[in-house]
Amino acid sequence: MTESTQLHAEMLHALQRLLPKTTSHDPRRLDTLAWAITGLCLKQTVRLWAWAEVAPSRSQHAARRVRRFSELSASSGSFSLRLVSAGDPGSSC
Question: Which helix (DSSP H) or strand (DSSP E) does residue 48 occupy?
Fold first, then answer.
């Protein structure tokens, strides 16, 4: 298991425990959120293309992998992702 898949599994498990079922209607969205957090922690940047390098995908096109993260933030009624800087004491990354 690679570092990214191990961190993703830990993030997914933590999110499943923290977020109520009413918030995470679609498990695919929760999975994408876990990959976004994993990408943020490993790449230490808010650039979506950097996160796409971490997440596995069947797509060979980087734009499709990036779109996966942009759709997560653009969808109404979904999670909001608070991005923190590395110097923020509340940051766990």
Answer: helix 48-54
